[in-house]
Write a structure and sequence with these properties.
- The chain is of the alpha/beta class and 435 residues long.
- Helices cover 32% and strands 23% of the residues.
- Strands 4-3-5-6-7-8-9-13-12-11-10 form an 11-stranded mixed β-sheet. Strands 18-17-16-19 form a 4-stranded mixed β-sheet. It has a two-stranded antiparallel sheet with strand order 1-2.
- The longest helix is centred in the first third of the chain and has 22 residues.
- The structure holds adenosine-5'-diphosphate and zinc ion.
- Zinc ion binds next to loops.
């Protein structure tokens, strides 16, 4: 396959060129933030660092971090670096982990964001001949508008469906020949399930690729979706604080996402000490916006845990890759002293032939943590006898024990008893936090 690029010169420039580009921008950006964002100036002053101290990316480590709580404290305008009259858009986080955070954009910021999304669409094989069906939510959430703008930049025919009304999504997909689907992986799985229920198979739909992100998903889930929809499924990563989707995107190699390093500098730090870790280490991802104007966050701690790699990529792109985040540091559950990521549970379920429709409940009884996993059976599996189901629950609990190190209580539940997601799936209920 001939590799498809949106901005080939930028996407394939040498590491030295990327570094020189970053070095040429960082000083100016820090000066812009220092002069226009009193909140960050104050953090820099407290740390005793001045804009003149930041001459290249090698000086980045001198700068203070920003966290989500800074964003909440500075809400709504405290981190704004441009007059509102120069801003053209506001977006907000989904509020998955608490109070929403809002971000501002100038037209320049929108432009670079849409370029990032266009790169992702072209990396997934998109061209102006394609029909891009955007089923991420439109509105304050960045998913819809980001892909919408990116698809326009590629010149694809854009279908701004937003999420929901799944049968209609499939109908439009067939009637209008959608070739690229953009939504959360959990919604893609739901679309696949609905397709089957409508009596169709992958052969009945014209899709060739999907670009799925905004939430963690496993390799097993990727294979499942690829099979059900008959497509290649690409991962995409982003967060509202940086712009939205497109901060990093997958290429034909499908093993890690290239971070758009001409706009964002990525670091991996030890989440406990804040120390910068060498390439290849697993840690918290931290981003610095190099050329955003209105909401240029510096050393923003994402709380997403992943690994960066500069290994040569077969697609020809040179920007650093982030491996699939295992989830946010705050998604990690500590159950009876053991660290458990929901993604580990998803992997076991799919490996054992179950549906990706599950719910994890954590609670505390008699001073001990409990872990209950509810997994929906497919209608074929549901016809088993009670005894067969009990045996399956036992086998699944033991497979979980091997992976997680603790014994969960498994509940195999009837088809359709777990709510489906049209956006970001909420799969964990930690009742310990409610007591
Ligand atoms: P919220 O923080 O309220 O969910 P956002 O919609 O901005 O707001 O979501 C950004 C977060 O979504 C990221 O920090 C990350 O945790 C998660 N995310 C986005 N894309 C991916 C992806 N491809 N894989 C795993 N997690 C992702
Ligand atoms: Zn690549």
């Amino acid at each position: 396959m001939v590799e498809n690029y949106y901005q080939k010169e930028i996407e394939t420039m040498s590491h030295e060129q990327i570094k020189a580009h970053q070095d040429s921008l960082i000083g100016k950006q820090i000066k812009h933030v220092y002069e226009n964002v009193p909140y960050y100036k104050n953090l820099m002053d407290k740390k005793g660092v001045k804009p003149e101290d930041i001459k290249s990316t090698a000086d980045l480590h001198k700068l203070p971090f920003l966290t989500k709580s800074d964003l909440r404290e500075a809400y709504p305008y405290g981190l704004l670096a441009k007059p509102l009259s120069e801003c053209v858009r506001i977006h907000s986080t989904s509020g998955t982990t608490g109070k929403r955070v809002i971000a501002f954009y100038t037209q320049h910021d929108i432009d670079i964001w849409e370029d990032c999304c266009a790169r992702a669409i072209m990396a997934a094989g998109g061209t102006k001949e394609d029909v891009v069906q955007v089923c991420y939510g439109y509105g304050l959430f960045t998913g819809g508008s980001g892909f919408h703008g990116g698809s326009h930049k590629v010149g694809s025919l854009t279908l701004p469906m937003s999420s929901g009304n799944t049968e209609r999504q499939i109908q439009f997909m067939m009637d209008l020949n959608s070739t690229i689907l953009c939504c959360t992986p959990s919604y893609a799985a739901y679309i696949g399930e609905t397709l089957k229920e409508m009596g169709y198979t992958a052969d009945n739909i014209p899709l060739k690729a999907g670009i799925f992100g905004a939430e963690p998903w496993t390799e097993e889930m990727r294979r499942d979706i690829e099979k059900t929809l008959g497509i290649k499924a690409y991962d995409i990563y982003g967060l509202t604080e940086m712009c939205g989707p497109g901060v990093a995107f997958e290429c034909s190699a499908q093993n890690g996402m290239h971070i758009n390093e001409d706009h964002f500098i990525a670091e991996i730090i030890d989440p406990d000490t804040g120390e910068v870790l060498p390439e290849g280490s697993k840690g918290e991802l931290v981003f610095t916006c190099l050329d955003k104007e209105a909401f240029p966050l510096i050393r923003y701690r994402t709380r997403d845990i992943c690994v960066l790699t500069r290994e040569k990529c077969s697609c020809g792109r040179t920007h650093v890759k982030m491996l699939k985040p295992t989830g946010r540091s705050d998604d990690m559950l500590i159950i009876r002293g053991v660290n458990v990521f929901p993604s580990q549970i998803e992997t076991v379920l799919l490996e054992q032939g179950y549906t990706p429709n599950y719910r994890i409940e954590v609670d505390r009884e008699n001073n001990s943590d409990t872990l209950d996993i509810f997994v929906e059976l497919s209608s074929e599996q549901f016809s088993d006898t009670v005894r067969e189901i009990a045996a399956k629950e036992k086998a699944l609990a033991s497979a979980m024990k091997t992976t997680l190190g603790i014994n969960p209580k498994m509940h195999l539940v009837p088809p359709k008893s777990i709510a489906r997601s049209e956006g970001k799936a909420v799969r964990v209920v930690d009742k310990r936090k409610l007591h």
